């Protein structure tokens, strides 16, 4: 899987590690991502890719920084 990095709306840079299926609900796809300090995080894909309101404007919670080669 090519490395894809995202910028969180608060400024942090994260690397997408993989997508995973939530065991307790196979209809939920989870995004596994890694912070610069190595911490691993997960969020439902619907939350990871959603638009949120910041200062009255809709922005992506995580915006892609680069495209895979």
TrEMBL record:
Matches recorded under InterPro entries: DUF1653-like_dom (IPR023387), DUF1653-like_dom_sf (IPR037135)
Domain DUF1653: 5-63
Domain of life of the source: Bacteria
Pfam families named in the record: DUF1653
This protein's name: DUF1653 domain-containing protein
Taxonomic lineage from the root: Bacteria, Pseudomonadati, Pseudomonadota, Betaproteobacteria, Burkholderiales
């Amino acid at each position: 899987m090519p490395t894809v990095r995202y910028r969180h709306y608060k400024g942090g840079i994260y690397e997408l590690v993989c997508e995973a299926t939530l065991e307790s609900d196979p209809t939920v796809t989870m995004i596994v991502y890694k912070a610069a300090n190595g911490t691993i995080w997960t969020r439902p894909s619907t939350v990871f890719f959603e638009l949120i309101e910041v200062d009255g404007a809709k922005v992506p919670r995580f915006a892609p920084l680069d495209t895979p080669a």
